Amino acid sequence: MSSSTPDLSSIAGALADAAAAQSMRHFRTPLDIITKADESPVTLADRAAETAMREILGARVPADGIFGEEHGPERLDAERIWVLDPIDGTRSFITGSPLWGTLIGVLQGGRVVFGMVDMPVLKERWVGQAGKGATRDGQPVRVSGCTEIAKARIVTTSPDIFSPADWTAFDRLSRQCAMRRFGGDCYGYAQLAGGTIDLVVETGLQPYDFLGPAGLIEAAGGVVTDWEGRPLGLNPDQRVIAAATPELHRQALAVLAA
Fold it and tell me: Binding of Mg(2+): at which residues (predicted)?
């Protein structure tokens, strides 16, 4: 494989392994917790994990850009950009819940072409690449065929993430679904890729929160956009909807906008 087209899955696997080596050392141990400007908690484990990931990218694809949660952007004018969240679900991590993960997305030419959701405690690695499909631990996965809101299973991380107006829209949509669940952080997106969840709707997300899951879900056959139906990119504070099918996506958008 030429240097211009590296093995994204191999590199992402190395990144996830390096992140897990740092984060798992600190999981369920006393932590020094810092509050960031956006009031979300960050731990020393977050920062050490992203540092380890960046060192690998610097060695293997030094011309690529990086957009990371903890250490900021580098070379965002590059053709290929790695989007990193070393510990997505920091509150889960801090409270000892296993439902946190490492998120890795790759943008090429402004388009998501690869996504990984790695769950170190669960020992599950979900990978999706454009044109190659999606897998969980090497086994193929695909979104469900759900096309009706009334039959859909919907999940979001917490009611606390929504503004009052956005909560009204989510509540209206979710009460029309067959089942709604709260919690799970990034794992809800993996469940959607695996066909056991049909809708994920969230707000106030940053690129490192959604681009890795978007790459996974799109490779598994799903649809991921903002609440206006537009493609996702490096814009901050996004309202995100992920759906198993185009039909379900269209219906859910209409209810959110009602």
Answer: 69, 85, 87-88, 209
